[in-house]
Amino acid sequence: MAAKSDGAAAAAGPEPEGVAGGPRGGAGGRGEAAAVAGGAGVTEAGGPGPRYELRDCCWVLCALLVFFSDGATDLWLAASYYIQGQRTYFGLTLLFVLLPSLVVQLLSFRWFVYDYTDPAGPPGPAVSTKDSSVGGPVISTKDSATAFRTKEGSPEVGSRPAPSSAHTYRRRCCRLCIWLLQTLVHLLQLGQVWRYLHALYLGLQSRWRGERLQRHFYWRMLFESADVSMLRLLETFLRSAPQLVLQLSLIVHRSNSDSDSDIFSTFASLLSLAWTLASYQKVLRDSRDDKRPLSYKGAVVQVLWHLFTIAARSLAFALFASVYKLYFGIFIVAHWCIMTFWVIQGETDFCMSKWEEIIYNMVVGIIYIFCWFNVKEGRSRRRMTLYYCIVLLENAALTGFWYSSRNSPLDRSLILVCVGASSFALGIFFMCVYYCLLHPQWAHAGGPQAPGCICPEAPGPCGPPADAVTSPPRSLPRTEREGATVGGERPGTPTPPVFQVRPGLPATPVARTLRTEGPVIRIDLPRKKYPAWDAHFIDRRLRKTILALEYSSPATPRLQYRSVGISQELLEYETTV
């Protein structure tokens, strides 16, 4: 349901939803967006937005290096198995490389198709305007994916001259080239590389452009970073995790190896898993305005934490699988079922539909086979402690079963047991270092915020401003007349007005700071709670709508999610289904 205010106050101030902050993007069939352009003379909220720095660029380049090293070592190992005539290991290694890559490329290309395809359906008025007494138009849209440009103060929103035939021809040629390029990139299994490079380009553009374009490119960089981090998380646990267990079990089973390719592949897979988890958490925190960003020191310590815990876990799996192959498969399936049921029981809220949520929970169940992954809001200390206690017991049991029926010398067996125990202890040590010294505070630096608010640039409290004009709904009678009987009181008893109307401005201007409200994009959805992504990062239709509104707005808009349970005065609405 789209809502437009019928009074002057709603154009300048917030409504029963929470006020929002800096620009973001996302698109959704389950939500709608409305942009309220600020009146003339209203300054933009806050100062300059977040800036893309050199270390951000270095982080992306390191991510590319990890990606290429993981893929190159796996292909090198597969070629080595083929040359040695070990066709079974060659087939398994190549299967773990190609199948996850195909799944991820299809998902990435599907996202591209949706982002570059106009919505189907008959054309209709995507934008409606309504004059406001504060001097600014109210712009509302529903599932709009067409970028429209407006001039500040123009009477028609979204009106522009018809493009010439030459311009239309050039535009079609550019779109065709983009489609051909993206098709070729994804056929070569390089969709994630393209997204990394595109995120790097957008980040550099946000650093070099002016303030308004800087924030626009920074928004798009965050969206691209979120997409590639989700794709990498899916691919690493479908490819690198089983590859790691396979190669470790082969190394344990064979006392000596003629090639170092399996060792390099094992280390590259392990580093890819640890790096992807830390990168995912960093991008997620950077996208949430109600959370402090994760520092690069914290991200590096997270890499070490996951590196050692996953190494210990994978070593225990490899030791057990080298002797009990059938029972290892049963154990993995049982552990995955239990973890998936645990995640579903926690009622996660990551996706926009029920089936997407189920698929997401199944992927999280795969992640829980190897490491901890927070999917529920609130303090996770007890859940994390319980998880790692279970993992410690499982690692000890798997290693104990292998040790009792080992075929290798005693010295080598003791070394492997000590390596696994030491790796797990180091991982827990780095986890404690992260949570004790480098974990960002849960509260935003600007103070607590009401639900639904995104206010990185305006940390003031959410709610209607003190000088906003609020008009009563038509269904409620005014009670400002004296002599009315209210609540059983006698006539003549002075009754305070239900709705207070702001008096007119004084004749002599009073020195005061200008309001910094600016345009607001209202999203008719409750804001998802951390550690979930915001809806405008998950829902691509909402992302396209917000990007169109943001690009057409003369000032950087803020986002406003629907808040539930905030006691505020009711405003008058005109609703459209």
UniProtKB/TrEMBL annotation:
The keyword Membrane applies. Residues 19-31 have a biased composition (Gly residues). The chain crosses the membrane at residues 58-83, 89-109, 176-197, 303-321, 326-346, 358-375, 384-402, 414-437. The keyword Cell membrane applies. It holds the Pfam family XK-related. This is XK-related protein. One of its GO terms (biological process) is apoptotic process involved in development. InterPro entries: XK-rel, XK-related_scramblase. Residues 1-32, 466-498 are annotated as: Disordered. It is found in: Cell membrane; Membrane. Residues 7-18 have a biased composition (Low complexity). Belongs to the XK family. One of its GO terms (cellular component) is plasma membrane. It is a multi-pass membrane protein. It comes from the Eukaryota. Keywords: Cell membrane, Membrane, Transmembrane, Transmembrane helix.
